Amino acid sequence: MRIAEFDLERYFARWEFAVRHLLCASDVQAYPMSELLALADDEVRGLWDTLQLGYTESTGHPLLRREIASLYADVEPDEVLTFAGAEEAVFCLLNVALEPGDHAIVTWPGYQSLYEVARAAGADVTLHELHESDGWRLDLDRLRRQLTPATRLIVVNLPHNPTGMLPDRATFDALVAVAEEAGARLLVDEVYRGLEFDEADRLPTGAEAMPSGVSLGVMSKAYALAGLRIGWLATHDRELLARVAGFKDYTTICSSAPSEILAIIALRARDRVLARSRDIVATNLDRLDGFFEDWADRFEWVRPRAGSIGFPRLTVPGVRIDEWAAGLVEAEGVLLLPASQFGHPGNHFRLGFGRTDLPEALARLERYAARTLR
Ligand SMILES: Cc1ncc(COP(=O)(O)O)c(C=O)c1O
Questions:
Q1: Does residue 215 line the site of ligand 1, with CB under 6 A?
Q2: What is residue 156's predicted lDDT score, i.e. its pLDDT?
Q3: Does residue 2 sit within a domain?
Q4: Structural domain for 287, as ranges
Q5: What pLDDT was estimated at residue 374?
Q6: What is the 3-state secondary structure of 30-62?
Q7: For labelling, which of 126, 203, 323, 345 has a CA lying 20 to 30 Å from the CA of 64?
Q8: What is the pLDDT of residue 247?
Q9: What is residue 1's predicted lDDT score, i.e. its pLDDT?
Q10: The pLDDT value given to residue 275
Q11: 322-340 burial, b for 16+ CB within 10 Å, e for fewer?
Q12: Average pLDDT, the chain
């Protein structure tokens, strides 16, 4: 198998643990272990205290699958399969769901593996480009025109990385109708689900939208537990899930035993865990609103509707974001993620607002901007 380099991950490999402030991280400030354990009920505390560090069930701990299933209205535990992060789930699913000659449509700019793994699996991939001038919205008329008789899969990421876009319910329903008419499967990457700024905006899930629909979830983002490396697929298509399970035998076989138990704790306490995340994001967004108001003549921003990231643009003529971000990290130790890491030509950058050091990071960015953009 040949696959192109994952630009964003290579960038993070270089910078993530070398800078003072990650102002482009997509996850929420990680839960400290002691605080998470304090949320355990008696049953799971018992599982934790007596845990044997052997192999685990390859489909996922039965209690974990039960908790994940309960995130959906009508998904059964055996319609859930767990993975080492969402990333492994993407890799396994796309390799199983797509064959050489199949056609897939994937939203772009976006998380690279969603289209790169599809290409590596031999599929012919059409990118459905989102535009700032449209508020980064899905354009269903254009999407319809992108369909071909070979279209097997439509991949969307809602809420969206990197823009924070979230369609309204009518647009989501229309998207499902397009997939149904085309006889294509819909994969909804829902890793930022739970971080809608207005809970009324939460959409139905991919798994429940249509019989062949698939939801992709993870503990990393809204649940603030990226270090667990626990992700999942949920779908009513059990035949597909069985084939994906067979593929996973060649990747990780089964999940990490401690991580499974910690994920069960977090999911059972999800109201508190998600409230903490939403609180961090809301406080940070307030600050960003102030920043973008003050700097409206230097930065443009389509305010996200959900998630922990947005995709603003530096609008100062002659200043390229790649060089400006390089200067910022050098001078202030604050990391941004320029659009080029998404293969996008715009002067945008990903801004993350899930971390509690945002006030200091933003103050440093502002100090640098005052020196270089006036
Ligand atoms: C849209 C999207 N999908 C999948 C993933 C992969 O999640 P994880 O790194 O937790 O496996 C990410 C991570 O940034 C993401 O942003």
A1: no
A2: 98
A3: no
A4: 7-32+271-372
A5: 73
A6: CCCHHHHHCCCCHHHHHHHHCCCCCCCCCCCCH
A7: 203
A8: 98
A9: 84
A10: 98
A11: eebbeebbeebebbbbbbb
A12: 97
The amino acid sitting at 24 is: C
Q: What is the DSSP string of 174-219?
A: HHHHHHHHHT-EEEEE-TTTT-BSSGGGPPPPHHHHSTT-EEEEES
Low-confidence ranges of the chain (pLDDT < 50): none
Are 158 and 232 part of one and the same domain? yes
Last residue of a domain, one of 269, 290, 317: 269
Output phi, psi for 80, to 5 deg.
-125, 140
Cβ of 354 less than 6 Å from ligand 1: no
Distances (CA, A) of 217 to 11, 75, 89, 94: 24, 13, 9, 15
- Using most ligand atoms within 8 A of CB, pick from 94, 218, 228 the residue to mutate for ligand 1: 218
pLDDT recorded at residue 185? 98
- In whole angstroms, give the CA distance from residue 236 to residue 215: 10
Q: Specify whether the CB–CB gap between 347 and 321 falls below 8 A.
A: yes
Rounded Cα distance between 37 and 45, Å, is: 8
Q: What are phi and psi of 91, to 5 degrees?
A: -60, -50
Q: CB-based contacts of 336: which residues, under 8 Å, 6+ apart?
A: 23, 24, 321, 325, 328, 329, 349, 350, 351, 365
Of 156, 166, 128, which is closest to residue 144 (Cα–Cα)?
128
* Distance from Cα 220 to the centre of ligand 1, integer Å: 8
Q: Does a structural domain hold residue 43? A: no
Ligand 1 site, residue 130, Cβ cutoff 6 A: no
Q: Ligand 1 centroid to 49 CA: how many Å?
A: 30
pLDDT of residue 313: 98
Tokens standing for residue 182: 């085309």
